[in-house]
Specification:
192 residues, 9 helices, globular, alpha/beta, Rossmann fold, five-stranded parallel sheet
Length: 192
């Protein structure tokens, strides 16, 4: 099974002392021997939805073997919130990304997580709601990690002990636990 994790610095695992991020932790859990999953972390620091729109197709085509099952897992939105990208622009890019991806591959979407800065965090909440609506309209399975992580004191502590946007290793572990429950049903049938 091929897995592509496409997103920003929160996908690549910035500030994770273990260098796994949430994608690496999930792959380690689902395929401890490293023999059944071919995973690519395509997280790029500061990658806005417009940047992801410009790069995801080429990066996916270059990595995927058409003979094997593939799953694209998108997680983005935080740089849009940090850079205060106009909402309509973020929605337009997200609609294009997810609409195109769904036409070619099995596709999942994970919302951006919360942040410490109140103004930027409010934008992540808005983006989460808008991106969720796009996923519903496209019939793409999606997971809101924004709301539950906001209520998780251990995750908020992991943000405060880091830079307020990216959690530390413990925070990525919390993210991985939530996301793994969501994506595992789409992966495990291909690992037997």
């Amino acid at each position: 099974m091929q897995l592509l994790f496409i997103g920003d610095s929160l996908t690549s695992g910035v500030n994770d002392s273990e260098r796994l991020g949430w994608p690496g932790r999930i792959c380690k859990q689902l395929d401890p021997q490293g023999t059944k999953l071919t995973a690519y972390n395509l997280g790029v620091r500061a990658s806005t939805s417009a940047h992801i729109e410009s790069r995801w197709k080429q990066e996916s085509i270059a990595r995927l073997n058409t003979e094997a099952p593939a799953l694209l897992v998108f997680c983005f939105g935080a740089p849009d919130a940090v850079k205060n990208i106009p909402l309509q622009q973020s929605k337009f890019s997200t609609q294009n990304i997810l609409g195109d991806a769904k036409n070619k591959y099995a596709t999942l979407f994970i919302s951006p997580p919360p942040m410490i800065d109140a103004e930027k965090d409010e934008r992540t909440k808005i983006l989460t709601a808008e991106f969720s609506q796009i996923c519903v309209s496209l019939d793409i399975p999606h997971l809101d990690i924004n709301s539950p992580l906001r209520e998780n004191p251990d995750y908020i502590k992991a943000l405060k002990e880091s830079d307020g946007v990216h959690p530390n290793a413990e925070g990525y572990g919390i993210m991985a636990g939530m996301i793994s429950k969501f994506i595992s049903p789409y992966i495990l049938p291909h690992l037997s």
